[in-house]
Amino acid sequence: MLACLWLPVWASAQGGYGDALRNSTTFHDYLRAPALSSVELSPNGRWLAGVKLNHEGIFVFVSDLDNPQAQTVDLPFDESTFVNWVEWANDDWLITSVTVYGTFDGQIYTRAGLNYYTFSGFETMPIPVTRLYLVRRDGSGVQRVFEGVKSLEKRNLNLGRIVSFLPNEPDHFLVAATLRGDLDLFRVQVSTGAHERIGVGKKGTIGWYADIDGQPALRVDANRRGTRYTYYGRQDRPNGRTSWKRLKSVRADERAETIKQSTEFRPLSPGAVTGTYYVAARPEGEPTTGIHLYDFTTDTYVRPIRVDPDRDIEDALINPESYEYLGSRYYDDLLKTEFTDQAMQAHMDGLSTMFDAAVNIDWTDSSRDGKRWLLYASGPQEPGTYYVYDVENAHVRNYGSAFPNLSPYRLSPVEIVKYRARDGLEITGYLTMPKGVGDGVIPPVVVMPHGGPEMRDTITFDPLAQILAGNGYAVFQPNFRGSSGYGLEFADAGRRQWGKAMQHDIEDGFAHLIATGKADPSNACIFGYSYGGYAALAAATLTPDLYKCVIAASGPSDLLEMLDWVRDEDGSRSDEYEYWTRHIGDPRRDRDELAAHSPARLAQQVKAPVLMIHGHEDAVVPVEQSSLMVEALTEAGKSVEFVELYRSGHSHRMAGDQRKEMEAIIGFLDSHLTVDPQIWSFSD
């Protein structure tokens, strides 16, 4: 549920950051909800809808692109409502998802009130309730999906899980909802709200995928902690009954941007032939993740669609009506889009040239006839802007910024850093420099390895990196071995290398910055989340003289204890436990090696002050992992601070907790690194 509610929760964390950063922006500017979001093009291309937030409140808007002078239709929501997203059901009807936070005794929180909520007991704890609404384009005819259906409304906090908008059935869509203890699949009629159940889930079902005919194709079940997904494919029996065949078991992504997460198997879209699906997958024996056509009735790959031997291709562009493959998207530092149609590619190349190849151009939507595109541009110095592109006239119209208070003039640039690790492996990293740093000036550096570890960083708008740079810190993000995006061989190079080769790659990146005059060895800190948190603690214990301070958030500190916990939670024969023993090491065969690279067992070696941060409700890395480290450091007489976030999980932060976390991070860095607030100017 927290994963589904990430957007509204993030949007609520917009109060209390009043202190200006050294570049004259504020935390509030970076962490406020977007002023413009969920912008969608109608199927006929004439209308644009989305969510708008300003000083007057939050609105769903509809504008006429063919008549820019016409008044925009604004549908206001009250102060207790978060609008998560809006989507076109057809050219006349919109579907919007909204969330309200309340208590079991009926109290409803406003958005402002939620910002300042502090935990004082479960009876006052805000509970999110999400519902879908059907709205006519002109704002009339508003109705709530499943309104009055007690069997669903009383059993579901979240009734906003859309499975398919069924573009070939414009008066229907599919939604998942819990009924009798399991997550089932329902077909809903747009014009009347009538519904029927077409798929029955099992205990642990968390999602569905539909086929070309709008029927349930794949069912997704999760383990108890939500860290592993198992896919089941529909099997139609000769007697007319349906059964489900177990297909694949994969690790759940740690963050929402799945295009950045390499995967062995992820469904993307129905194929043009019944029983098939486009998937991002890495079949056994293949060196990279690519786009494949997959037959879920036989659990076989029909044929590769787009595969690159040197990089992972993780997302496809599919025509939602014909299910024709249009192209692929992948990250090569920046987002790259490849169309099979040369004319479309020529337009995309022209757009890239127009933006000086300095931003990610996300082709988010297209009209049915392909004559009008919706684009979203983002990058380090472009926090996010929507553009409408007229294909026939090659004309770009700036529709609006998602973050108008963030001036590109104040945002920090990112440069690509390529270096070789000590064994010769080439590594790519990204360095965010405070805007306007003068020649010969070396700002303090925060080395920030990513989590996963089988994930990657890219050149994008990163609010955390920008906040740190806005406060005077350079931020270095290395894609060490074990990261995704570079193929299986690169990912495999990180197996069983926790505290060893993966750690060396981070150290070698810092050494490269020092050698090239971009870092001062006496003025740097290491900071990371999840695996990055482990890497920070490993640096504190294995190379105690390397950094002046250490920040570790949500990371393991004792590898043996961590593996024991996963085994107890998921079982010694589970796919999840097998994954981690393959990735970290086997506690029976590798016990001494794992102990030698467990920071909590090496606390005596720490010299730098340490800040620990952990969400109390973390189901991926238990909070006890941070408690172990804090206890070991305290017993060893080391400097340690511990910020426990009582209403947050592994990677999701509730309102208030995020404010508390950011204040602790900046305060800790300012206490241990030297920043001259006059080292840059904005005269250029």
For the largest sheet, list the strands in their spatial order: 28-29-31-30-32-33-34-35
**Cα radius of gyration in angstroms:** 25 Å
Q: State mean pLDDT (0 to 100 scale).
A: 88
Compute the number of helices.
14
In terms of quaternary structure, the protein is single chain
Distance between the termini: 47 Å
In terms of DSSP E residues, the strand content is: 25-35%
Give the helix/strand class.
alpha+beta
Provide a descriptive summary of the structure in words.
The protein is of the alpha+beta class. The protein is built from 14 helices and 35 strands. The chain has an 8-stranded mixed sheet with strand order 28-29-31-30-32-33-34-35, with helices on both faces. The longest helix is centred in the last third of the chain and has 16 residues, at about 655-670. The two termini are about 45 Å apart. The relative contact order is 0.09.
Task: Briefly characterize the structure.
The protein is α+β, with helices and mostly antiparallel strands and 684 residues long.
Topology readout:
Layout: H1 6-12, H2 27-31, E1 36-41, E2 47-54, E3 57-64, E4 73-77, E5 81-88, E6 93-102, H3 111-115, E7 127-136, E8 143-144, H4 150-153, E9 161-164, E10 172-179, E11 182-189, E12 195-199, E13 205-210, E14 216-222, E15 228-236, E16 242-251, E17 265-270, E18 276-281, E19 290-295, E20 300-306, E21 315-318, E22 325-332, E23 334-339, H5 342-354, E24 360-366, E25 372-379, E26 382-390, E27 395-401, E28 414-420, E29 426-432, E30 445-447, H6 463-470, E31 474-479, H7 488-492, H8 501-515, E32 524-529, H9 531-542, E33 549-553, H10 559-570, H11 575-583, H12 591-596, E34 610-615, H13 624-635, E35 640-645, H14 657-672
Parallel strand pairs: 30-31, 30-32, 32-33, 33-34, 34-35
Antiparallel strand pairs: 1-2, 2-3, 3-4, 5-6, 6-7, 7-8, 9-10, 10-11, 11-12, 13-14, 14-15, 15-16, 17-18, 18-19, 19-20, 21-22, 22-23, 24-25, 25-26, 26-27, 28-29, 29-31
